[in-house]
Write a structure and sequence with these properties.
The chain is of the alpha+beta class and 81 residues long. The protein has helices at 31-43, 72-80; strands at 3-11, 14-17, 26-27, 51-53, 64-70. The protein has a 5-stranded antiparallel β-sheet, covered by helices on one side. Strand 1 and strand 2 (14-17) form a beta hairpin. The longest helix is centred in the middle third of the chain and has 13 residues, at 31-43. The two termini are 18 Å apart.
Length: 81
């Protein structure tokens, strides 16, 4: 299983992921959704097992969160084919 640890930052009401291979993703609803979108762009699919928050929120930096994205959904899809 491949995984990446990323940072999601809230800027002007949008949640933006860190760049991976020149690709970033954004969402207006939640940092988890931004992380899912990055996984979708990298691996072509996502599901509920794709993203996990790393650590507790930092009250000193409420606009920044850490996430782990995985290729679990893509692996499931490949094995089902």
């Amino acid at each position: 299983m491949a995984h990446l640890d990323i940072t999601v930052t809230r800027v002007n009401g949008q949640y933006w992921t860190s760049r991976v291979n020149g690709i970033a993703a954004a969402a207006s609803t939640s940092p988890a959704r931004a992380a899912e979108r990055l996984a979708e762009q990298l691996w072509g699919t996502s599901d509920l097992d794709t993203v996990r928050r790393l650590g507790a929120p930092d009250p000193a930096k409420p606009h920044i969160s850490r996430w782990r994205i995985t290729d679990t959904a893509a692996r499931k899809q490949r094995s089902a084919q």
